[in-house]
Structures are given as C-alpha cells and as structure tokens.
Write the structure tokens for this entry.
Amino acid sequence: MKIEGQFLFENIPSDAVWNFLTDPDRIASCLPGCEKLIPTGDGSYDMTISIGIGSIRGTFSGSIHLHDIHPRTDYAMTVKGSGAPGFVNGEGTIRLEVSGAGTQVSYSGDLSAGGPIASVGQRMIGGAARMVIGQFFKCAAGKS
C-alpha cells in the first residue's frame, strides 16, 4: 500500500528540521508508541513500538535503516517489524524543501503487512499510518 503526504514546518529552517529527523532520541520522543530507538551503526536502528489498529494491538520489534542519504535534502529508509500482531515492512523517502513559509517535508513509501494485523484491512492500516505520521510531524514541529 502506498503512503504519501506533506507537512510544513512553519518558520523552521531546513537545518533544524534535518537535525530533528536524523536524531534518534528526538524521533523517539515524538513517535507515538515508540518504546526504544537505539542506534546500531551506519544509519541503522533497533526499534520497539507498541501500536493498535482497530482491535489488533501489540508490540513490534524491528529495525530502521536510513540510506541514500543526501544531507539536508533527502534520505531513504527501510523499516521491518514483527510481533504477535504480525509483521510490517516498508520502504520510503523523506525529502526537505525550503519554502517561503519554512521547510516543506514530503514523504512517500510502500507498506506491507501480514498476520493478524492484515485482517483489519488496508484502508484501516493506511488510516492508522497517516494518523501516526501526522502526530509525529506535529510533535516534531513543536520541538524543532
């Protein structure tokens, strides 16, 4: 399933946004349900996150890997997680652009899920993903 969108960090310079979006402690502080995000080297992180979608709730353990990094403008990421609710895998990109009003962040990616969590359907998974992303960016804007 495709996930994409944009968020405007009003009156926040791109350097500040970039620094936030590449700092695991700051990311963890704004990512809903994030229990840990630990650097393991070379743009890779171990992650534990608790999340619920519909009646399916649980904890996922997995990894995030940032790659194809172009400092201050964009990077790609690969996410893999599994737990009792099933698995979630994804790949995507984050792109920053300076605008007159601040810094525009665009994101796009593909997400796949399997196991019990897939039973809630793509529409509900996509809606939950967009909600988590929106909460993350609103929190990040307040802390950048």
About this structure: The chain has a mean pLDDT of 93. The chain has one domain: 2-143. The first helix runs from residue 14 to 21.
